[in-house]
Automatic annotation (TrEMBL):
Cited InterPro entries: Polyketide_cyclase/dehydratase, START-like_dom_sf
Domain of life where this protein originates: Bacteria
SUPFAM superfamilies in alphabetical order: Bet v1-like (SSF55961)
UniProt protein name: Carbon monoxide dehydrogenase subunit G
Gene3D superfamilies: 3.30.530.20
CDD domains registered for this protein in UniProt: SRPBCC (cd07812)
Amino acid sequence: MKYTTSIEIALPREKVVQLVADPEHMPKWLRGLVLHEPVNGVHGQVGTTSRVVFQMGKQRMEATETVTRLEPADLHAIPSSVVVHYDREIVGEGMWQAQRDRIIDAGPETTLWESESEFRFDGLLMRLMGRLMAGTFRKQSRQHMRDFKAFAEQGTDVRQGTN
């Protein structure tokens, strides 16, 4: 399963990149995030592996995330013509996911965030669940992007239950 979602954020790209790259902010916009800790390496750098734990209702999911691409490596003073690429692979029980984010300067006070998600599932039951729940995966990706936009533009924290 593969799909792309996108959203415009009314902030300069440099500010958006700083907010996305700061692990302190992740729980404020990534619903259900319980833990995101590097096992080796430094958060956000290529090759870094992190333990990621989500809690959604009574369901808890644990996975390993590996940063596979960050371009440019230095996220300061990036020319407006350069697209920021931030790619990760996430592996959990019965599934593999590639997350490929592009953060694009769309104007002096506007940023376009495009996110491509690709999922592969192990075993017949997981593959069947993936097909049956494809719309749910897309909906959740769009929700994460809307939550990030609300956090970045207005300071809305999803842990406060305000949206």
